[in-house]
């Protein structure tokens, strides 16, 4: 038996929906079968993580136990009487929470497989959840977490491998109640729509761009790399657009599956994409693209860094603070994707785009009367943003590394 990647084939959904049938019947009749939900989760986790040599499954168990001990220990510290809310206790709790992910990310760079004890699908998204809980425990937003609630939150199987990233309090609100029949019927309609749209995105449009077109365009771009400076040709431009379409439809399709299955389980997992290629500027793009990740980075890195700099009065200029925040935020995002030059440049590119966008918005505000605003300028803004984003995806794809160095 091999590991079965969630949502990897249409056949997977047949078995998944059969497994979900008792949950659906129960919720429709106003009951949540918690024991069966646990059993269904165990079955899905076994198929996804315990096939082959079982190393992923063992790593997952070790990781969950480690993070649970850490989060619950920090919760106990914060809720004990006269807790001082010491910054360094919080700091080291966060550091310890991300150490397994750091090991996994460093492994390809160091070429030392022995350090990847926690290498399994979805470790990044589980780490985001754990760190979110530590930060909200420090803020006082989370005051109580039972061990099985922590496990249920991290191991919610529709989103375990690639998100979307939910928040603990929002998730708890859904799983602790049973929706009315009318609410659940509406959730089933919405979930079905999202599943069908996900099939269209991932298995049809994503297949056309990713399987049929992308290899051919890549081969043509490589064959023409001696025809222009830096190996560039019109086929590289074609690769940029084809890869961007594949990346969106494949990932958005997966996210729609995760949200749709969540709806069948009576959970309103937040959406991850909101027509990102209709964005008017790069900031609007990050409010539409992989939203749960971008909002997580905004809330738990950018905003906290801004607050820290303001509290310590490190920098007087708010513009300079914002620019430093963008550089830090997108550098971290780049390193999170991997320790290769194209991921780092991708992060720096988006930081520069955000800084430039803010500068343009400040200029536009000062010269509002002299700068036209109409349907043409809106269309141009969407067109420009789309091309800037697609160029960043060309960097992200790693194709330029292949074109120039291999």
UniProtKB/TrEMBL annotation:
Keywords: Acyltransferase, Cell membrane, Membrane, Transferase, Transmembrane, Transmembrane helix. Pathway: Cell wall biogenesis; lipoteichoic acid biosynthesis. The chain crosses the membrane at residues 12-28, 35-52, 58-75, 87-104, 110-128, 195-214, 234-261, 319-336, 342-360, 380-400. GO terms for cellular component: plasma membrane. The keyword Transferase applies. Its EC number is 2.3.1.-. It is a multi-pass membrane protein. InterPro entries: Ac/AlaTfrase_AlgI/DltB, DltB, MB_O-acyltransferase, MBOAT_fam. GO terms for molecular function: acyltransferase activity. It is found in: Cell membrane. GO terms for biological process: lipoteichoic acid biosynthetic process. Belongs to the membrane-bound acyltransferase family. O-acyltransferase that catalyzes D-alanylation of both teichoic acid and lipoteichoic acid (LTA). D-alanylation of LTA plays an important role in modulating the properties of the cell wall in Gram-positive bacteria, influencing the net charge of the cell wall. Catalyzes D-alanylation from DltC carrier protein. NCBIfam families: LTA_dltB. This is Teichoic acid D-alanyltransferase. The lineage of its organism: Bacteria, Bacillati, Bacillota, Bacilli, Lactobacillales.
